[in-house]
Design brief:
Elements (H helix, E strand, L loop, with lengths): L1 H14 L3 H20 L9 H24 L3 H15 L8 H10 L5 H11 L6 H11 L1
Helix pairs in contact: 1-2, 2-3, 2-4, 3-4, 5-7, 6-7
């Protein structure tokens, strides 16, 4: 499970004295652990889909933070964020391309946006950018 993998990687980064990996892995692992507590789950039973959503959200937050550093000219901080993104991006599955999303939507009987979003959330959770799915679904309506 992804939750276990994140925990093991976090411990390994601590042993390796890898501050960059340790900082981002501890943040993501902590968010996953908090979500499992909120859902009332055993700490080791958080579904992979939930972990993937947390990783994707964290990557978006890192992108925003990186842009802020670039605006103020702090390139060393922006480079550190790139390294952090690289560390957690390893845990994401291959993302669906626009063509693959269009192909999947074209197979659906009901192409209304709520139905399309529900289908992708159920079947491709963490494997695609839901904003992109929404944008493409609007083309079909």
């Amino acid at each position: 499970m992804l939750f276990d993998d994140l925990g093991k990687a976090n411990i390994q980064a601590l042993k390796d004295h890898d501050k960059v990996a340790r900082s981002i892995l501890s943040i993501v692992y902590g968010k996953c652990k908090n979500l499992s507590i909120e859902k009332g789950l055993n700490a080791k039973s958080l579904p992979d889909g939930d972990c993937l959503q947390i990783i994707q959200k964290t990557i978006k937050e890192l992108d925003e933070e990186r842009e802020g550093y670039i605006k103020v000219g702090r390139m060393e901080s922006a480079e550190e964020i790139d390294k952090q993104k690289e560390v957690i991006s390893k845990y994401l599955p291959k993302q669906l391309s626009e063509d693959e999303i269009r192909n999947e939507i074209s197979k659906l009987e009901d192409k209304k946006i709520p139905s399309v979003m529900k289908h992708f959330k159920a079947n491709f959770n963490g494997m695609c950018d839901m904003g992109l799915v929404s944008k493409i679904a609007k083309e079909f309506n």
